[in-house]
Design a protein that fits this description.
Elements lengths: L3 H8 L3 H16 L8 H12 L2 H5 L6 H12 L5 E10 L2 H5 L6 E23 L4 E12 L11 E5 L1 H13 L2 H14 L4 E5 H6 L4 H9 L11 H5 L7 E4 L9 E4 L41 E5 L4 E12 L5 E7 L24 E2 L9 E4 L8 H4 L2 E2 L11 E5 L4 E14 L16 E10 L1
Parallel strand pairs: 2-13
Antiparallel strand pairs: 1-2, 1-16, 2-3, 3-6, 4-5, 6-7, 8-9, 9-10, 10-14, 11-12, 12-15, 14-15, 15-16
Helix pairs in contact: 7-8
The structure holds 2-acetamido-2-deoxy-beta-D-glucopyranose (5 copies).
Length: 446
């Protein structure tokens, strides 16, 4: 029979390693320029008065100190995450459209460095059910002084509004509706490629087509301009429930917006769910179950990426502070159709190496891949000059201190693309028909 103190040791790590981790995250923090969080801190400060973290955790954590640490990790994680973003600049558009060049030439520019500020608001604990619920908030803050690229940089990029709306109509409507759309597009003067600056590309450029679409289809497009980051970081009211009571599943997701799965990827019931859309038991990566059994894959859900992505234990390493950490690497096949985590596709399926996340983005044909089409269908790569996939630099991993379940560093890389499908009735996107056009790639780092 195990008595009190012994149980504590079993359940939570020793004080020393916890201190080390706190120092480690503090140390990491200081090695970057201090960034002012602004009002977020004030808001978080007010919330912290409403709940007493010590009281919350006494059910599961006998030691109050550990409870406070865990609470802080969720409310405002002590580490800082940065996002390096690279834009693909299309540099031979006139030559390509005139037929002189057979391939599109893209030139990676950047990085544009952002800080990703992730907090959780309205944290509340249901002691009886042993769960914690919260509203995640995620914000991006541009760091111009740390960036190579600036918002004023002139770029040439595909007209996302035109490509998305044309592809959607091609998918959903017949020839005549597409022909009618073509007349509107021509009348409005929308062009396939646009000159804009990096800031407009991220946060929105005005295209008459979006205004028309948002007026005609108010339930579908509720924004007046299209910007790729603006869409990815649009504030939705999300609610997450995380498991606390069950030690073997602690910190894993129970539900997201009250659902154990992702309806956007076809989730209906747990029984019928597949790894792609089952959120119950996955992790967002803020913390994972202490003493995680590393023989099992680590499924990570990220709302923006609209699917669960598998990571697997690679090796044990030593951290700078002298304690062991476990490296989990994203499955090489994560973006392939052969991956057990791939979503089922019956129509308009993308080539290998692309994950369709259109259902999370108003049906816009947004596709994720690894940067520079790494491990993607070679046919897609051949359509472009300027793709330089690098298995080392473009892979994704996360390093975790598994006894407590704290991620200490990570690098996850993803590219955002737009898939083009054209209808005979609407020739406006014909030059790029059946291509997956790269837009930008992000490297999330801690
Ligand atoms: C993007 O490409 C265009 C066309 O080649 C060029 O004029 C522009 O300077 C490029 N932008 C950047 C930031 O390099
Ligand atoms: C937190 O709760 C308040 C009150 O219900 C709500 O107004 C606010 O939007 C919530 N925060 C988030 C991020 O959803
Ligand atoms: C799910 O499966 C379990 C056991 O296989 C069964 O008892 C349960 O009724 C099923 N639930 C639904 C909603 O089909
Ligand atoms: C860890 O998981 C593997 C595979 O699922 C299993 O075979 C093994 O028994 C587990 N180890 C422990 C200690 O639970
Ligand atoms: C993923 O698909 C690509 C393209 O078909 C292929 O080259 C690669 O070997 C696949 N990778 C894995 C791990 O299955």
């Amino acid at each position: 029979m195990v008595v009190g103190p012994k149980k504590v040791i079993q359940q939570v790590p020793s004080r020393i390693s916890l201190m080390k981790i706190q120092n480690f995250t503090a140390h990491k923090r200081q090695s970057f320029v201090t960034v002012v969080y602004g009002t977020l801190f004030i808001i978080a400060g007010i919330i912290s008065f409403a709940i007493n973290p010590a009281e919350i955790y006494t059910n599961w954590f006998v030691d109050i100190k550990e409870g406070k640490f865990v609470y802080k990790m969720w409310k405002e994680p002590t580490y800082e995450i940065f996002s390096d973003i690279y834009i693909f600049n299309y540099t031979n558009v006139p030559e390509f459209l005139s037929g002189k060049d057979k391939q599109l030439r893209v030139d990676e520019i950047g990085p544009y460095k952002f800080q990703e500020i992730r907090t959780n608001e309205n944290i509340s604990i249901d002691k009886d059910r042993g769960v914690m619920t919260m509203n995640p908030v995620i914000k991006l803050k541009f760091l111009p002084d740390k960036s190579v690229g600036q918002y004023s940089d002139p770029i040439i990029a595909p007209n996302i509004a035109l490509v998305a709306i044309s592809t959607l109509l091609a998918d959903q409507m017949g020839y005549f509706a597409n022909a009618a759309a073509y007349y509107s597009i021509t009348a409005l003067g929308s062009k396939l490629f646009l000159n804009m600056n990096a800031g407009e590309f991220f946060w929105g450029y005005n295209d008459p087509l979006v205004k028309v679409a948002s007026t005609l289809l108010p339930g579908w497009i509720d924004f007046g301009k299209v910007g790729i980051l603006d869409r990815f970081y649009a504030q939705r009211r999300d609610k997450v429930e995380v498991e606390l009571g069950n030690r073997n599943k602690r910190y894993s997701i129970n539900t997201w917006n009250d659902s154990p799965g992702l309806p956007e990827q076809g989730y209906t019931t747990l029984n019928e769910s597949i790894l792609c859309n089952r959120l119950k038991g996955t992790y967002e990566g803020l913390m994972i179950t202490p003493r995680y059994n590393v023989s099992n894959p680590l499924p990570i859900f990220r709302k923006q990426a609209c699917r669960v992505y598998p990571f697997r234990f690679l090796e044990e390493r030593m951290s700078d502070m002298g304690f062991p950490i476990s490296r989990f690497k994203m499955d090489e096949s994560a973006f392939n159709k052969s991956s057990p985590f791939a979503c089922t596709c019956t129509k308009n399926c993308l080539p290998d190496g692309f994950v369709d996340i259109g259902s999370c983005y108003y049906g816009f044909p947004i596709a994720l891949s690894k940067p520079h089409f790494l491990d993607a269908d070679p046919e897609q790569q051949k359509m472009f000059v300027g793709m330089h996939p690098d298995p080392e630099a473009h892979a994704s991993h996360v390093d975790i201190e598994t006894s407590i379940g704290v991620p200490l560093s990570l690098r996850t890389n993803m590219q955002v693309n737009i898939a083009v499908r054209a209808s005979g009735g609407n020739p406006s996107i014909r030059p790029v028909k059946d291509k997956v056009l790269p837009l930008m790639w992000l490297s999330l780092k801690k």
